[in-house]
Fold these 2 entries.
Entry 1:
Amino acid sequence: MSNEYRGKKAMITGGLGFIGSNLAHRLVELGAEVLIVDSLIPDHGGNLFNIEGIADQLRVNIADVRDRNGMDYLVRGQEYIFNLAGQVSHMDSMRDPYTDLEINCRSQLSLLEACRYNNPTVKIVYASTRQIYGTPDYLPVDERHLVHPTDVNGINKMAGEWYHILYSNVYGVRATSLRLTNTYGPRQLVKHSRQGFIGWFIRLAVDGEEISVYGDGKQLRDLNHVDDVVEAFLLAGASNAVNGEVFNLGGTRPVSLLEIVDTLIDLCPEASYRLVPFPEDKKRIDIGDYYGDYSKIETTLGWKPQVSLRDGLGDAIEFYRQNKEHYWE
Amino acid sequence: MSNEYRGKKAMITGGLGFIGSNLAHRLVELGAEVLIVDSLIPDHGGNLFNIEGIADQLRVNIADVRDRNGMDYLVRGQEYIFNLAGQVSHMDSMRDPYTDLEINCRSQLSLLEACRYNNPTVKIVYASTRQIYGTPDYLPVDERHLVHPTDVNGINKMAGEWYHILYSNVYGVRATSLRLTNTYGPRQLVKHSRQGFIGWFIRLAVDGEEISVYGDGKQLRDLNHVDDVVEAFLLAGASNAVNGEVFNLGGTRPVSLLEIVDTLIDLCPEASYRLVPFPEDKKRIDIGDYYGDYSKIETTLGWKPQVSLRDGLGDAIEFYRQNKEHYWE
C-alpha cells in the first residue's frame, strides 16, 4: 500500500466531508496527488476545516457532482476516484425525496457517464451503506442478504451502488462498492443530529450533557472508526480482484447503544444519559438490531477493523475537544 | 371480481400504452369509472387507438407523471391506481440513463408523494419487471432471488418498486408490486424493436418476413399474454393481503426463442427465420435463460397464467392483421 498511491492522481468526491477528508489526509501522507471535488451543500458535511494541515498539498474544486459538464472535465487523467459525495440523512430523504434522488442517483450517473466517455480506465470505489438491507432477516448480515431498504435514502443509495456495478460489468469502468455501517471519528458533521446518532452522542458527551437514548437502548449496532473505513477504501482501490463487487464493512463486535453511551460517559464523566420513547417518525424507519458479516472483504483484501470502541471514541472526543469551534455550529 | 370494481374510481398511469389500455378495456367492462393518465411521449407505447371502442366510456388526461402539481390533483378521490407509466426500453436506458431516471424514479416519487398528501387511502398496483433480477443465479427465479439488474432500466425500475413498498410500509399508502416477465398481445408498441423482441417478432410474422434470432435461439423465456397480466393487476388491486408485497408473474412453461418463432411461422407460413450473431451492445445486457416461479401469487391470490403460447400468439396476430395501420408506423 505504501507505494500503490505514491505520485498517483486520486479524486475524492465529497472530499471535504467526514470520510472523504480523512481519506484525503491519508492519501496525502501516502504521496498521492489528491483532487477534492465537493459541492459544500450546507448541512451535508463539507467543512473546509477538515483539510486543515493538508490544504496546501492538494487541490480543491468546488463543484456539484450533478454537473455533468464539470465532471467530464474533472475525471480526466484521474487514476482513482473515491466516490463519497452523497446525501446521508435518512430523515431528510423522507421529507424531501427529490433532492435525495438528485444527489444519490443523478449525481452517480453523471460521474459514471463522465468516466464512460472521458476516462474509462479509472478505478472507482463507491461509498454505499448497510442501510440498503433495511431490517435484517438474520444476523450478522452478509452480502447474500436480500436488500429491502426502509427509507428513500436507502433505496437511492442502492440504485447508486448498482449503477457502479453495472458500469463496471458493461463498460469496464472498474468499480467496487463498500457497504459502510455506522462510522464515527474526527471530522464528522455534528452540527445537527440528522446524520446519525453516533456523532451527536459524541458531541453531547464532549459538552457534558445528557444523552437521550431512544427505546430501551439495547439495540445492537456495529461501529467503525473512520481510520478503518479509510483503510478499506485504499485496499479496494488498489485491487483489481474486487471490480464489480460489493463488500460489507463491519465493527470489531456488536455493541448496544447503552454500551456506547456508557463508554462515552466513562470518557466524559460530566455527561449522562436518559432513556426516552422512540419518536414516531424515527421509529417508522428504525431497523432494530444490525451488525454485519465482513468476512468477504477480510478473505479477499485482508481488511478487518482494528480500532476498538474505547480507543476510537477516545480519539474522536480528543479531536472535538481541540477543534470544537469548527464543528459545533 | 365482477363486483369489486363496479362503480369504483380507477386511475391508470400509462393507460394509453400496451398493458394499461388492455387493463382499461377490462375495467370498463367491469363497470369501473376509469381515468387514464398518459404523457404520450413518442415511442413509449401510448397510442390513442388503444382505447378504440371504449374512448367514450372513460376519461383521458394527457399529463406527465413527473408533474407533481398535476398528480396532486389527479390522484384525489381515486380508489385504485394501476401504475404502469414507465420507460421500458433497456437499450434506451443505456443510451440515455437520465431520461430513464426521470421517468422510472422521479415519476414514481411524484405519484407516491401526491398520494401521501392527497389520497393516502388509495390502493396502488405497480408494474415492476423481472429485469431487476438480472442474470439468474438459479431457475426458476422466485421472489427470494437476489436482485442484480444488468441495465440502467432494471436499476431504476427496482428503485421505483421499492418506493412503492416503502410508502406502503411507512405511510400506509397501500401498494403491491408485480414483477412482469415478457408480455405480449394486442395493443403493444411494435413500431420499433426496442421494447423487447416478442412484439417485433409478431410484427415480422404478420408481414411474412424473415425473423432474425440472436445466438442459437435456445435461450429460454417465459411469456405472458396480456390478458393474464391484466387479471393479475385486478386481483392484486382487490386484495389487502398483498399490501407491501412483491410478486412474480410467470408463463405457463419456459419456451425457447426457436419454439416461439416456430409457432409464429406455423401461424404465418409466409414468415421465416434465421440465426444471427448477438450484436455486441445487446449481448452485454443479455441475461441468458430466464423463467420465473409464480407460486407466491398463485398461493396468495389464486392467479395463474391461462393463455397458451399458441392461442396467445394467434390472438395477437389476428389483432394486428385487422389493425395493422394503427401500429406499424
Entry 2:
Amino acid sequence: MRSLANLISILKTKNLTVATAESCSSGYLSYLLTKTAGSSKVFKGGIIVYSLEAKNKFFKIPYPLLRKTQGVSSEISKTLALGARKIFKTDIGASILGFAGPEGKKVGLVYIAVANKTGVICKKMVIKGSRDTVRKKTSFLAIKLIYNKVVSSL
Amino acid sequence: MRSLANLISILKTKNLTVATAESCSSGYLSYLLTKTAGSSKVFKGGIIVYSLEAKNKFFKIPYPLLRKTQGVSSEISKTLALGARKIFKTDIGASILGFAGPEGKKVGLVYIAVANKTGVICKKMVIKGSRDTVRKKTSFLAIKLIYNKVVSSL
C-alpha cells in the first residue's frame, strides 16, 4: 500500500513519532504502522480499549457517557487520540472507534481521530462490508488521515 | 482458522476473559482475538509495548534489563502476560515479544507467554520467514498456547 510506505517514510524523515488507541480495529492499525522494518523509530505503542472499562481506565471517559454512546462518539475518539499522544509522549496520536458488526443498527459507523501539536481532527464515516472489511478499511483510512494531518502540518 | 474459532467458543462458554501485551506482533494477536462477532465478551483490551519506554511505563520492566535484552527475554514476556491479566482484570493474559526482522542476528526469535490464575507459561521459539510471517505465525501460535492453557486448566 503506497500511502502506508509514504507515511512511514515521511515520519522517519521528519523524526515524528506515533501512538494509537484502538477499539473496533483492535490492533490492526498498530499492526499496519509496524509492517515496515525499522518502524520502531516511528511507532511507540498503543492501547487497545476494546471494553468500556478499558476506555474509562486509560482515558478517563466517564461511565455515563460510555453507556449512553456504547463507547462510540466523536468526543470519545478525540479524547483517545489526544490521550494516546500524551500517554506515549509522541508527536501524533491516532484513534479508531466504531461498530464493526455484523449485527446492530449502527454497523459500519466509525470514527477516526488524529491529534498532533496543532490540535485534533475527527472523521465520521460509514463503511460497508463484512466485520473484517470494516476493521481493515477503517485502519487504512486512518493511515491516510495521519498522512494528511502530517503533510498539512509541515 | 479452526483453533481460533474453538478458542473463542470455549472462552465464551466458560465465561473467561483475555487481555494482551504485544511487542513485535504490534496488535495482530488482539486483531485475531476479535475476528469473531461478540468477542467483546471475551477480549477486554491490550497494550502494545513496541518501545522500551512503553515496556517500562506499563509493566515496570527496569531499564538496565531492557537495554541488556533489547526488551526481549523469557522473564519480560512472563511479566507482560501476568501484567496484562492484572491491568485489565481478566482471567487470562497473553504476551508476544521478539525480533521480527528482517535484519539482526536474532531474527525470528520470539517468546509467547500465557498467564492465568494457576501461573504463567512461556514458550521460546524461532520462526522462519519474512517479517510479516514471523509476526503472523507468532500470533497464531499464541492462540494455540492460550487454547492449550485454557483446556489444561478446565
